């Protein structure tokens, strides 16, 4: 999928497509102490609303950290082709309609008590901005650009980066 890094709408669409990819695991973290490390989470996207939902339990470190602060970041990566850092406000929400909407066998495997688990809740990331890096040349272009850069003393031309305001 080729994306013009200078086309804001195309880059934004690519961002949402990458996050929405079936079973996309992202790294999510809150900007509060003691949450120092990001953790893997499965993202469920609502691009039209600018929201990303995650299943969790109310007693996890990440869920408890939301009480201390709401600023959060999410990292999504597809090898060398696509990387993004997405920022926004993270809230803890009990939302039975979304639990029902996004519940699937993979989610169920992590919650043996099922949808009735009293600790089951959701995190909602209200997206505000993102930095996106796209490189679409593949391994042959990568090797060529690295060799060319070493010979010419320049840097490889492997794609570009764009900042997106998503409010």
Provide a brief overview of the structure.
This protein has five helices and eight strands, in the order αββββαββααβαβ. The protein has 167 residues and is an alpha+beta fold.
Give a count of the beta strands, DSSP E runs of length 2 or more. Answer: 8
CATH class: Mainly Beta
CATH architecture: Roll
Order of helices and strands: HEEEEHEEHHEHE
Could you describe the largest sheet, including whether it forms a barrel?
8 strands, antiparallel
Helical stretch count? 5
Helical content class = 25-40%
| Mean pLDDT over the residues | 87
Which word captures the global form?
Answer: elongated
Low-confidence stretches: none
Distance between the termini: 25 Å
According to CATH, the fold-level topology is: Pnp Oxidase, Chain A
The whole-angstrom Rg is: 18 Å
Q: What is the total domain count?
A: 1
Labels describing this entry:
167 residues, alpha+beta, Pnp Oxidase, Chain A, eight-stranded antiparallel β-sheet, 5 helices, elongated
Protein described:
The chain has a single domain, classed as Electron Transport, Fmn-binding Protein, Chain A (Pnp Oxidase, Chain A, Roll). Strands 1, 2, 3, 4, 5, 6, 7 and 8 form an eight-stranded antiparallel sheet that branches. The protein has 167 residues and is α+β, with helices and mostly antiparallel strands. It starts with 7 loop residues before the first helix and ends with a strand. Helix content is 28%, strand content 37%. The chain has helices spanning 8-20, 61-65, 96-102, 105-110, 138-152, and strands at 25-30, 39-42, 44-46, 51-57, 71-78, 82-93, 120-134, 160-165.
């Amino acid at each position: 999928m080729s994306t013009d890094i200078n086309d804001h709408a195309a880059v934004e669409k690519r961002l949402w497509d990458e996050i929405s990819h079936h079973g996309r695991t992202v790294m999510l973290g809150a900007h509060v102490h003691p949450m120092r490390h990001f953790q893997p989470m499965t993202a469920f996207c609502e691009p039209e609303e600018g929201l990303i939902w995650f299943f969790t339990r109310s007693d996890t470190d990440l869920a408890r950290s939301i009480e201390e602060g709401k600023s959060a970041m999410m990292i999504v990566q597809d090898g060398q082709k696509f990387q993004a850092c997405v920022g926004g406000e993270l809230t803890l929400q009990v939302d039975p309609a979304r639990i029902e909407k996004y519940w699937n066998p993979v989610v169920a495997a992590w919650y043996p008590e099922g949808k009735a688990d009293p600790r089951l809740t959701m995190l909602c990331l209200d997206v505000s901005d993102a930095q996106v890096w796209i490189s679409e040349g593949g391994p042959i272009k990568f090797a060529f650009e690295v060799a060319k850069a070493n010979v010419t003393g320049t840097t490889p031309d492997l794609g570009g980066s764009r900042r997106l305001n998503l409010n």
